[in-house]
Amino acid sequence: MGAYWVLFIAALLLLLQAYLFRRFALSRLQYSRIFQVTTCYAGDAVELIERIENKKALPVPWLRVESQFRSGLYFKGQPNLDVSEGEYHQNHKSFFSLMPWTRIIRRHQVIARQRGVYVLGTVSMTAGDLIGMSKVVRSHQLNGVLYVYPVPLDISQMELPVKTWIGDMLVKRWLLPDPFQTSGIREYREGDDVKDIHWKASARSGELQVYRKEATADSRIMIYLNVEDHEHMWSRATHTEALEYGVSLAAGIAVHLLSQGMVVGFGSNGTTDRDSKLTTLIPAGGGPAQCEDILAVLAALDFRRAGSFHDYLELELPQSGCGHDIVLLTSYKNEKLERLMDQYRQDGYTIQLLTLDNHSITKQEVQR
Questions:
Q1: Torsion sign across C-alpha atoms 245, 251, 254, 255
Q2: How far is C-alpha 232 from the chain's CA centre?
Q3: CATH for 24-149?
Q4: What is the CA radius of gyration of the chain?
């Protein structure tokens, strides 16, 4: 009879602990996960900080936290972390055991292997009792994102045609007169505009004098990247090596020209959201904030086209306004695209077409 009561009491205790853990295991349990930084470059090492705190008297014998990331982040191996990686996503499982009123902080060393936008989305938390009789599951939404910028191609690594074009743009910046800035007067020369004549100075000297214009610092440059890897691409690029090179090249051109005080913008017929059908455009601007905006867009750029490159340019170029200097980065060129470029010669555009081909660049200059 005594053994019966022992078994009965043991069964009651097991049922009671199962109920308690099912009811309270995830209560007053706080979990957070953040990247140490919000931006980095491909190849950089960053920290993912995981923090969990049990703010109650009941222990949590075991807790499993599951989440999913895009592939492209490499987690260095460590205890209590299981990573299974697929072609496009990787699944993470972290394991914890928490005593009452306990806080655990883990720092995961992560290598950002590939450009992209990595979002800390929803995690699934599963807790159980002492002997695994019951478990409880709860989802927890996290707010955090890591922008992995492409590594900008250094100007020393660029092909000669690109270096030459960049040099031309920098020289042109100081050759173009700024209509709003003057630096004294000079003698009239044939071809000077009548509206630039300084009449009072001309009357005093007895000879025509004109305002001397300062060099402009507002040479506007637009970089356009074609995400089609061949002329007849339907939806998404499959051969992306040259396109990734184009992303790094676009980043390098933008970073270098912006550092020289130029005004630069970026556009593409690719999207920055896999579920979007909108093209990408950063209007021309200057300064460090513009550089960050362009790098962020290049980090997010997906090689899924929203439309053909020809159609994109046909809509975009008239809206950008004449007078822009334009560089086109594309994996192919055809007669249709070249005819479109010719149409803009009369509007004062200078267009440089650079063909991306297996990490090398050939040049075709289309200008007035």
A1: negative
A2: 27
A3: 2.60.40.1530
A4: 31
For residues 166 and 154, what is the distance between their CA atoms, to the nearest angstrom? 12
Yes or no: say if 173 and 216 are a contact pair by the CB < 8 Å rule: yes
* Partners of 219 in the β-ladder: none
Q: Which residue has the tokens 């987690």?
A: 75
The phi and psi torsions of 210 (rounded to 5 degrees) equal -125, 160
Please check whether residue 187 is in contact with residue 207, taking contact to mean a CB–CB distance below 8 angstroms. Answer: yes
Going from the C-alpha of 206 to that of each of 187, 190, 193, 198, 210, the distances in angstroms are 11, 17, 19, 12, 13
pTM greater than 0.70 (yes/no): yes
Q: What is the pLDDT of residues 128-182, one digit of tens each?
A: 877 777 788 999 999 899 999 999 999 888 887 788 878 877 766 554 454 544 5
Fold adopted by 155-175+217-367: Rossmann fold (3.40.50)
Percent of the chain with pLDDT over 90: 45
DSSP H or E run through 244: helix 241-259
Separation between Cα atoms, residue 88 and residue 304, nearest integer Å: 15
Backbone angles phi, psi at 350, to 5 degrees: -110, 120
Domain boundaries, the chain: 24-149, 155-175+217-367, 182-215
Read off the pLDDT of residues 26-78 as tens digits, 9 standing for 90 and up: 899 999 999 999 999 999 999 999 999 999 999 999 999 999 888 899 998 77
Which residues does 307 contact at the CB level (< 8 Å), separation at least 6? Answer: 269, 279
Helix (H), strand (E) at residue 362: strand 360-367
H-helix or E-strand containing 318? helix 309-320
User: Do the domains at 24-149 and 155-175+217-367 have one common CATH topology?
Assistant: no
Q: Give residues with Cβ within 8 angstroms of 67, minimum separation 6.
A: 33, 91, 92, 120, 121, 122, 123, 124
Residues 6+ apart with CB under 8 A from 62: 95, 96, 97, 127, 128
CA angle, residues 224, 228, 234, in degrees to nearest 5: 140
- CA dihedral (234, 235, 238, 239) positive or negative: positive
